[in-house]
Amino acid sequence: MQAGIALDVTPTPLPVDVPAWIRLSGLDTDRLVVGFSRGGELALLLGATFPEIKAVVSYVGSGIVVSSLDSATSAWLLRGESVPYWTYTDVANLDAATFAVERINGPVLLIPGQRDLL
Predict the structure, then answer these.
(1) What dihedral angle (degrees, nearest 10) is formed by the CA atoms of 8, 94, 85, 118?
(2) What are the angstrom distances between the C-alpha of 31 and each of 34, 60, 64, 73?
(3) Backbone angles phi, psi at 8, to 5 degrees
(4) Nearest-CA neighbor of 66 among 108, 113, 102, 117?
(5) Does the global pTM surpass 0.85?
(6) pLDDT tens readout for residues 28-43
(7) pLDDT tens digits for 60-69?
(8) What is the chain written as a DSSP string?
């Protein structure tokens, strides 16, 4: 954790019953990706990249790859290459860092939040 940043570690209940959504959807859970915060970004990215993934649950994820916490590199590698990323100071690179979530080969449950500090 970076000095000067306080994270609220109080557990936050999910606003929907995700296990019930998965069960009722009849999804093949062997091909379901679920992620929270930065993992929600990864879940969307994986779903948009690999058609074998049939459903995505993203809690506070983004369709934009944001830089790693050190802001000097991409947070993700794909086939050994850095995935294009965006930093909060580089508006010009926003288009390259945006990936096509509409390519996800199945349903997407996107759960927004208000206080994700990462």
Answers:
(1) 0
(2) 10, 20, 22, 29
(3) -80, 115
(4) 117
(5) no
(6) 667 888 998 888 998 9
(7) 888 998 887 7
(8) --TT-----S----SS-HHHHHHHHT--GGGEEEEETHHHHHHHHHHHH-TT--EEEEES--SBPBBPTTSSSBS-EETTEEPP-B-TT-GGGHHHHB--GGG-SS-EEEE--S----
Of residues 83 and 12, more confidence is placed in: 83
Contact yes or no for 56/104 (Cβ under 8 A) = yes
User: Please, which contacts does 80-87 make with residues 24 or more away whose CB atoms are closer than 8 Å?
Assistant: 83/45
Alpha carbon dihedral 38, 57, 62, 42, in 10-degree steps, equals 50
pLDDT of residue 80: 74
Tokens of 84: 């294009």
Structure tokens at 33: 């990706």
Amino acid at 13: P
